[in-house]
């Protein structure tokens, strides 16, 4: 076991930190207030190779390992958790799914522009009646000759409005449960495909989330990804990796909360001394530091297993469950240490608390992560 980062990994961390400080921090409070997508910054992230970090260079990616991806993601999330989720969805859901399950033609046509950051992707699994019970979907693709005709509504789609390409999971056969689900690559311009309004969210307000509508949307058969009926396993297998990304987004929020709390505790004076000299504050800082390190170690273990090509679903679920709780706890403690100053928008720490909450919800709630972990543990894994 080696806890040292390589020179290449350190360079990626430094590049991401500098980018985050120079390009994401300025304006993050305003973007949050206006719910404004960081379009310019996402374009720059593509140019830096951050939108397809783990994809082979031959497919427009940076050809890096998952630890490098986590290092960059933590830095981006520290500055702007909205930019982090945009990055996470494109990297670990969209690009990864096409790389693992797409045909050579699909990789050439779709993966190259997505991994190079020229295009942006979205991943669409949930529907109004099916969130945690993800296979309980209604959107239906009816085969007609060399096409499918798709009808239905999807929701909670991150990057839904801004994306150029959507990976859609929907039924191709009814009444056979998850074995009737298939995956399709949908282009924004396809007739019969439209997006709903941007959801007005509590946090990660810079990222866009919306419903997708399919009304007799005609999709060519070559846009089906993988076999008919294989879509649910493709989705769940991909979400295992996505959960490492979201766990790291949570880690970034938690680390930022710790850093902001430390800075404030060393500055703010009460009763004639810096508040960091009080045991009550020290206990909070110590607990935050332990939790942040523990979350990072769980994430790196899942990432290392993924890179080794061995099953990592349980480890990814553990990392996401734990890191998202740490993000919630650390951001709440950060606001507490700031007191009244933490409760106003200007200092920017209340945003951390709002941004943290979603990490316990999307890409599988904390309760679903516990279900995945418990099933694995009970099965002796
Ligand atoms: N990888 C591959 N296959 C898997 C798998 C995995 N990790 N987990 C299960 N499967 C397979 C099973 O082996 C099974 O196949 P067989 O029938 O052939 O044995 C099949 O998939 C169905 O598995 P289950 O019976 O375990 O399915 P289930 O209905 O009990 O549900 C669940 C399992 C874990 C609850 C799953 O539905 C789940 O993860 N729900 C949460 C959904 C989720 O994470 N949604 C996120 C939405 S996307 C999002 O948030 C993105 C965004 O925009 C940020």
Describe the fold and architecture:
The protein is α+β, with helices and mostly antiparallel strands and 381 residues long. The chain has three domains: 113 residues, Acyl-CoA dehydrogenase/oxidase, N-terminal domain (Butyryl-Coa Dehydrogenase, subunit A, domain 1, Orthogonal Bundle); 108 residues, Butyryl-CoA Dehydrogenase, subunit A, domain 2 (Beta Barrel); 147 residues, Butyryl-CoA Dehydrogenase, subunit A, domain 3 (Up-down Bundle). Strands 1-4-5-8 form a four-stranded mixed beta sheet. It has a four-stranded antiparallel beta sheet with strand order 2-3-7-6, covered by helices on one side. A hairpin with a 2-residue loop joins strand 2 and strand 3. Helix 1 runs parallel beside helix 4, helix 7 runs antiparallel to helix 8 and helix 9 packs antiparallel against helix 10.
> CATH superfamily name of the largest domain?
Butyryl-CoA Dehydrogenase, subunit A, domain 3
Unreliable parts: none
Strand order of the largest sheet: 1-4-5-8
CATH architecture of the largest domain: Up-down Bundle
Biggest sheet features: 4 strands, mixed
Radius of gyration (Å): 21 Å
- What is the CA–CA distance across the termini? 21 Å
CATH class call of the largest domain:
Mainly Alpha
Output the structural class: alpha+beta
The percentage helix is 40-55%
Which overall shape is indicated by the principal axes computed on the Cα atoms?
globular
Per DSSP E runs of 2 or more residues, the count of β-strands stands at: 10
Average pLDDT works out at 98
- What ligands can be seen in this structure? acetoacetyl-coenzyme A
Strand percentage: 5-15%
* Helix and strand element order: HHHHHHEEEEEEEEHEEHHHH
Number of helices: 11
